[in-house]
Design goal:
By secondary structure, the protein is of the alpha+beta class. The radius of gyration is 18 Å and the shape is globular.
Length: 216
């Protein structure tokens, strides 16, 4: 634990980790820009993060891409954001409204919209009351929507993830990742390149209201 904390105890490395919370793979050059540090310094920081198993490296041709090591690391970072937001940011006004409304939490949706979605799924018996799994009705409803959740996966089918800004749960696990992919591929949402912010499209607003009674 001390070694892990030491690897994270640098502002530039935390900027790199937070950037990777958008769930995508970044080059070292891109990460140096977002962390506002020199390329050589970025390489040193990435080596430290790799050694601590906080990030992993993917090679494609001559290019190397970096992403978070696992979903567990993303969950750890999200929990840390919740703690620092609660302690250091008593006023929500310091956080951009767009980020509070909808953003990515690694590979699933977070923010006000995601919390409303979670509440709908629980209240309408699509997922169990504790958010730990889908119901039979939920399987049927998602299948009708066009989301097939019967694929084999080692991940939990569904789990509650504490939202750092709302202090309530949003949907994580395989269901959360599938929903984000579905929303994006069907143009309900658009990602802001290089950021965690997510824009709800005009189509998305209509469909979210139609299927989940989410008004904004």
């Amino acid at each position: 634990m001390a070694a892990l904390a030491a690897a994270m105890s640098d502002a530039s490395r935390m900027k790199i980790l937070c950037a990777l919370m958008d769930g995508k793979a970044w080059t070292a050059t891109e990460l140096s820009v977002v962390a506002d540090i020199a390329a050589s310094t970025t390489s040193s920081h990435l080596s430290r993060l790799l050694k601590a198993n906080l990030v992993t490296c993917l090679s494609q041709g001559r290019h190397r891409y970096f992403r978070l090591y696992s979903n567990n690391i993303a969950s750890l970072l999200e929990n840390m954001m919740g703690i620092t937001f609660q302690i250091n940011n008593p006023s929500r006004s310091k956080v951009p409204a767009e980020l509070l409304k909808a953003r990515t939490c690694y590979d699933h949706l977070a923010g006000e919209i995601a919390v409303k979605l979670y509440d709908f799924l629980v209240e309408n018996n699509w997922i169990q009351q504790d958010g730990s799994d889908l119901t039979v009705q939920g399987h049927e409803k998602f299948l009708l929507l066009g989301i097939n959740l019967d694929e084999k996966t080692r991940r939990k089918k569904c789990c509650p993830c504490l939202d750092w800004s709302e202090r309530k749960f949003h949907v994580g696990g395989y269901l959360g990742a599938s929903l984000l992919n579905f929303f994006e591929s069907n143009y309900w949402i658009e990602r802001v390149s290089g950021y965690r912010e997510v824009i709800i499209t005009s189509k998305g607003k209509k469909e979210l209201h139609r299927h989940f009674f989410i008004d904004k």
